[in-house]
Amino acid sequence: MTTRADWHAWAAQQDAPRLTDWLREISEPDWSATVNHPLFDAMAEGRLAGDDFAVYMVQDYGFVDPFTALIGFAIGRAPGMADRVVLGQFMGMLISDENSTFQRTFEAFAVPAAQREAPDYLPETRAFQALLRETGSAGGYAEILAALVVTEWIYLEWALRITRGEGLHPLVGEWIDLHDNPAFQDFVAWLRRRLDEEAEALDDAAFTRMAECFRETVVKERAFHDAVVPR
Ligand SMILES: Cc1ncc(CN)c(N)n1
Fold first, then answer.
1. CATH fold group of domain 19-228
2. DSSP 8-state symbol, 165
3. Which residues line ligand 1 (CB under 6 A)?
4. Which residue among 60, 129, 178, 225 has the greatest number of ligand 1 atoms within 8 angstroms of its CB, and so is best to mutate?
5. Nearest to 215, CA basis, from 56, 68, 3, 16
6. Left (φ > 0), alpha (ψ -120 to 50) or beta: where does 162 sit?
7. Which amino acid positions bind substrate, per UniProt (predicted)?
8. 32-80, pLDDT tens digit by residue?
9. Would you name the residues annotated as active-site residues?
10. ipTM greater than cut 0.95
11. pTM of the model
């Protein structure tokens, strides 16, 4: 299912085949289950209690820490300056605007210091952290791009899909803005393009590792959001 031969067989049936479209397709039903996750609708329509939003953001900050390190690995493994500039600009946004949204959310919803400093991470958050750390330390550039394409493209898709309710808490609005704005859309398009290109040059074993990494990241996305949804 994840070999180069599988990709070529799929591509032969398409008018305009794109590797990242194929990767998304072989990651169903987890991809659509994540994009259409009820957590995002509850959040966007103002049905998610403030405390539950804060719980999600605490867990998500546990994702953002190794994710930031993964961008660092991507910058290091990139083939040249052109990629490093784009990834570095994204890193700049992550550690300024996005980090600030987290910090102000923790303040606004009075998240206790203990939960900020040493949060109780859910098993699904820990499993996602482990995957990001492993991909950063052992993965090649294409595998890192595969993980980044998943995490950013899935967030773009739900953010473009949801309908915003009236009178949303400003921090919820800000969280959606971070994931549907034009610069973010351009970044996701760039990530996809670069993975489409980089995959061409991989040998067969590296190609399969890249495709497995994509699928495993989607599995982790679904499990994370299933776990943080309030019951
Ligand atoms: C779990 C998760 N996945 C993706 C993103 C978007 N960077 C996020 N904030 N959190």
1. Heme Oxygenase; Chain A (1.20.910)
2. P
3. 60, 63, 151-152, 155, 221, 224
4. 60
5. 3
6. beta
7. 60, 98, 152
8. 999 999 999 999 999 999 999 999 999 999 999 999 999 999 999 999 9
9. 221
10. yes
11. 0.98
